Every structure is written in structure tokens, then in C-alpha cells.
Amino acid sequence: MVENCASTRGTIPREFFYGAAKNFPLRGTVICYNITMVTRRMKLPFSVKKPILACGADLKGAFALAAGRDAFLVYDLGDLGELGNFKRYSAEVDLYRKKFGIKPQVIACDLHPDYFSTHFAESLQLKTKGTRLCRIQHHEAHIASSIADNDIKADVIGVAFDGTGYGTDGNIWGGEFFAGSLKGFTRAAHLEYYPMPGADMAVRQPWRMAVSYLYGAFGPKFMTIVKKRNRADASVIKKMIDKNINSPLTSSAGRLFDGAASLILAKDRVTREAELPIELEKTIRTGCRDKYDFDIGKERKELIIKTSPLIKGVVKDLAKKTDKAVIACKFHNTIADIIVKISAGLSKRFKTKKVVLSGGVFQNKYLTARAVEGLRAKGLEVYPPRSVPVNDIGIPIGQIAIANTRALCV
Asked: Do 145 and 136 meet the contact criterion of CB atoms below 8 Å apart?
């Protein structure tokens, strides 16, 4: 609760500041912190035309209220898929609207039709006269949060790498390259689509993504690569993919990390979000500069990054019993190389040197450092998030920035 904040000052863990410093364009002050929730008052680099409630996403419950140049970001409310968390989220939105005297005229939410935060926004809009609902694509909100954070006025190349986000084509996005500004983005490139067998089950059991990537890279003969004791399960996954049974397509960089980490570390299941990618980063042998191959295709006006050569390279190194620390390093170097090469090409095409990075994958310090190093070596201006969290906690700030800019919303 806000009124209890004074007693908690000085006890806030450093990680909740996300590197905030006094010279950053979008400065934030933590005005409340307790075991399960954080509230930050932030100065926006613009004034909102109408009061806005941004409802965020789902996995990391967060919302923000904005009026004038003030935004109040409330987060660490947990996974909204859990009933208790969703009830608390709903109550906190109502509490903070009254606490700060903000009556939203615009309600921004994620494009995903099944998010609990989306259902909440839809319900609230129907019950509140004079409000407009603004649906915003998840990864565009990620990029917008970084644009607002860095107070960028010009067009950018936006790299949004994360686990899950509903795309405008109905597929699951997460390995995206955009070009544009808050007024509108073009999806210019993305990782190649792969089936996600079992949908959300593939997140908890990353071996499913490993099988999907192996099948995509090697075709039916991938079964010869799978250990005999695992072939029955792999055969089931193959049939699911062949018959398109609960296997939505995904371009997610997070799922690529899951699949590769499952292969490299020989682990099948997880109990925490991003468990294997975090372990894979810790496995890296620093100083390694080698990387794997990847191909670039094109569909209509979008570049498609084909990762089959990457998967084949990992399998080849595993067969040679190459040190896993080296394989992990080469994998990370390849993802950084993808970011650099695609961004550099799009920079020329869209005539901008500004590149922003956002999405949970960029919590990976090694990957981010390598990507930033490579982008700057190409003469590009790189803007990683500064005071706004890089993961889904920052989504409400991006939703505010887009909702305030686009005529459809205001």
C-alpha cells in the first residue's frame, strides 16, 4: 500500500531500480516496495493527451496509470493466470485510480484476446462511460517502452526478443525486428516460424522445442539423432507437428533458447521461467569468438532468419563432444550476430541509425553486451532500456506511449 511506503525506503533491492540514474530521460522514483509489489512514479518525456490506464500483459502482472507527465507503474503482481493474483491485480487498479485521482479516458491492453489483462480491460471499458479501448501488439509495446525510456523522436530499428507475444497474424511472436516510430511500426524481419508442440506445455518441457527444431533442421531423419530411450516421445511430437495438433507456430527467440539449451545441457523440464537459458548463459566460456551459421530468406517484404544451420552446428559439435561451454558461447555469439547483421541491413533500408533493444531475452547480459558491441562497431546508435524494465514489467509504459500517439486510441 502506498501509505506504508515511507517505512520501506532504504530496503529496496538494487535490481528494482533497473539501472535508473538521474540523467535518464524517463526517470523513476520507487514510492512503494514490499515483498510482493513495487510502485514507481515516473516522469514521462511527453504529456499524455488524456488520462490512460495501461493494463500490461499476463505473465508478469503490471499496470500503469498516466496523467499529464506522470506515470505510476505498479508491478510484481505475479502471473495473472492465477486467480488470487488476478483478483489482487483488479483490486490494485481500482485502488490506484482512486489514490491518485486518475480517471482513465483511454484503456490500453495487449492484443492477445485471451490474456486476463485484456479481459479486464474490455470489461472495465464496457463499465466506464467515455472511455476508449486501445489494443496494442505486445512487441510493439516493448519497443515503444524503450523509445519512451530514451526519449527518441526519430524512426528506429526495434529488436524485440522475448518468450511469447500474440502477433497480428495470429502466430506467437518473439524474435522480431521492427522499423518505425510510436506512430506506427513495420515488421521488417523475424526468426523463422517453428511449431510449438503442446503450446504452453513446450515452455515447461523445453525438450518439445528441441524436437521441433531438430525436425525442422534434419527432416524425418532427425529420429536417428534422438537417443533410443527418447524416440517414442519424439515420435509423438513429430505426429503432433505433422497433423498440426496443438502446435501453434512461433518465431520466439525465447523458445529458440529453450530448445538449444535443452539440446546442449541435456535437460528436458524446468520449474522456473527461463531456467535453461539462464543456465546456458552461466555455462559460457568467455573469450570464445566462434559462431554458427544462419541463413536469411524473404517472404513478401519481410526478412526471415532461418536457424536450421545453427541447430545443425550445435548437433555437430555435440556429436564431436565439444565442450558445452564452447557450444553455449557459439550459440550466444550467433544470436548476437543475427541481431547485428539484420539491424545493420534494416538501418540502410529504412535510413535510420538508431537501434533499440527490448524484451526479456535482453536480460541475458552476455548476449546484450555482444549485440551492443557489434551494433556500435557498425556505426549504429544503440539504445537498450535504461530505467524501464526490459521484460514484460515495462509493457505498460510502452502501451501508454503508443496509446498517446496513435489517433486510433486518442
From this structure: no
pLDDT in tens, 18-48: 333 333 344 445 545 444 678 889 999 999 9
The residues facing 68 across adjacent strands are none
Sign (positive or negative) of CA dihedral 371, 353, 165, 65: positive
Q: Which is more confident, 16 or 239?
A: 239
Q: Where are the domains of the chain?
A: 2-153+390-405, 190-383
Report yes or no: 173 and 190 within 8 Å, Cβ to Cβ: yes
Asked whether this chain's domains 2-153+390-405 and 190-383 adopt the same fold, the reply is: yes
pLDDT of residue 3: 27
**What is the pTM for the complete model shown?**
0.90
DSSP letter string over 230-276? Answer: GHHHHHHHHHHHHTTSS--EE--HHHHHHHHHHHHHT----SSTTHH
Residues 63 and 75: their CA atoms lie apart, in Å, by 7
Q: What is the DSSP string of 150-184?
A: HT--S-EEEEEEEEEEE-TTSSEEEEEEEEEETTE
Superfamily of domain 190-383: ATPase, nucleotide binding domain (3.30.420.40)
Number of helices (H), then strands (E), belonging to the chain: the values are 12, 16
Beta bridge mates, 161: 175
> What pLDDT, in 10s, does the model give residues 63-99?
999 999 999 999 999 999 999 999 999 999 999 999 9
Cβ of 358: how many Cβ atoms within 10 Å?
A: 31
Beta bridge partners of 133: 107
Domain 2-153+390-405, architecture per CATH: 2-Layer Sandwich (3.30)
Residue 198, Ramachandran bin (φ over 0: left; ψ between -120 and 50: alpha; else beta): left
